[in-house]
C-alpha cells in the first residue's frame, strides 16, 4: 500500500490548476489562430524543457518562431495518423504566480495551414486530451531533474568529504611533524643551554 499511497500523494501535489484544456485564440504573425491552452502547476521553463526533452526522445528538434517552439512533421499516435507541425509556448500565469503557467499548442497541417476546431474537430479533441495528460510528462521530467540535481549535490558532497578527509590526514601528519620538530628544537635548545652552563662554569666542551 505504501507505493500506491506515495504515487497518489505525488499526483495530488502536481494536480493541474485548470480543470480542462480550452480552445483559445492567439496571435501569430499578426494573424489570429485557433489554439488549445492549459494551465499547469510548473514554471514555464520546466514545461518547455519537458516538452523539448520528450520531443528529442521522439526524434524531433524544436526551432524558435515568434515566441513559440516549433516541431515540424511530427507523427504522434496521441494526435492521430497525420503529420503535423506543433507550436508550443508556455507563459507564466502572472508576475506574482511564478509556479503556474499556461501552455499553448497550435497545430499546423503544413505550410502554416493551422487546424481549427470547426474544420478539424477530431484533431482538436485529441490535442486537448494530449495536453490534458501533459501534467504526467512534466511531473516525470521535473522529478527526474530533481533527482539528477540531488545526485549531483550528493556526489559533490562525497567529493568534498574525500577532499576534507585528505586535508585532515595531511593536517594530522603536519601536526605530528610539527610535534617532532618542537621536540628536536627543544632538545637542541637544551644542548645549547648545557654548553652555555659549561662555558659559564669555566669548563671545557
Topology:
Elements: H1 2-13, E1 22-28, E2 31-40, H2 44-57, E3 63-65, E4 68-74, E5 84-92, E6 101-108, H3 121-132, H4 134-200
Helix pairs in contact: 2-4
Explain how this protein is built:
- By secondary structure, the chain is an alpha+beta fold.
- The protein has a domain at 15-132: TATA-Binding Protein, CATH 3.30.310.
- The chain contains four helices and six strands.
- It has helices at residues 2-13, 44-57, 121-132, 134-200, and strands at residues 22-28, 31-40, 63-65, 68-74, 84-92, 101-108.
- The chain has a six-stranded antiparallel beta sheet.
- A hairpin with a 2-residue loop joins strand 3 (63-65) and strand 4.
- It starts with a helix and ends in a 5-residue tail after the last helix.
**What is the CATH architecture assignment of the domain at 15-132?**
2-Layer Sandwich
Order of helices and strands: HEEHEEEEHH
Beta-strand content: 15-25%
pLDDT < 50 stretches: none
E-strand count: 6
User: How is the CATH topology of the domain at 15-132 named?
Assistant: TATA-Binding Protein
Percentage of helical residues?
Answer: 40-55%
Amino acid at each position: 500500500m505504501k507505493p500506491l499511497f506515495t504515487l497518489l500523494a505525488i499526483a495530488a501535489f502536481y494536480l493541474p490548476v485548470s480543470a480542462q484544456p480550452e480552445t483559445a485564440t492567439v496571435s501569430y504573425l499578426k494573424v489570429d489562430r485557433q489554439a488549445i491552452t492549459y494551465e499547469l502547476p510548473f514554471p514555464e521553463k520546466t514545461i518547455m524543457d519537458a516538452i523539448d526533452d520528450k520531443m528529442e526522445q521522439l526524434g524531433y528538434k524544436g526551432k524558435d518562431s515568434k515566441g513559440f517552439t516549433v516541431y515540424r512533421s511530427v507523427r504522434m499516435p496521441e494526435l492521430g495518423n497525420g503529420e503535423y507541425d506543433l507550436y508550443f509556448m508556455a507563459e507564466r500565469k502572472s508576475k506574482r504566480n511564478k509556479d503556474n503557467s499556461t501552455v499553448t499548442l497550435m497545430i499546423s497541417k503544413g505550410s502554416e495551414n493551422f487546424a481549427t476546431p470547426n474544420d478539424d474537430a477530431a484533431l482538436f479533441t485529441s490535442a486537448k486530451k494530449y495536453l490534458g495528460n501533459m501534467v504526467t510528462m512534466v511531473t516525470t521530467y521535473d522529478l527526474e531533474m530533481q533527482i539528477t540535481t540531488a545526485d549531483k549535490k550528493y556526489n559533490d558532497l562525497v567529493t568534498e568529504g574525500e577532499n576534507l578527509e585528505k586535508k585532515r590526514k595531511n593536517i594530522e601528519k603536519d601536526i605530528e611533524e610539527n610535534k617532532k620538530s618542537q621536540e628536536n628544537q627543544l632538545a637542541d635548545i637544551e644542548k645549547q643551554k648545557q654548553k652555555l652552563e659549561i662555558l659559564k662554569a669555566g669548563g671545557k666542551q
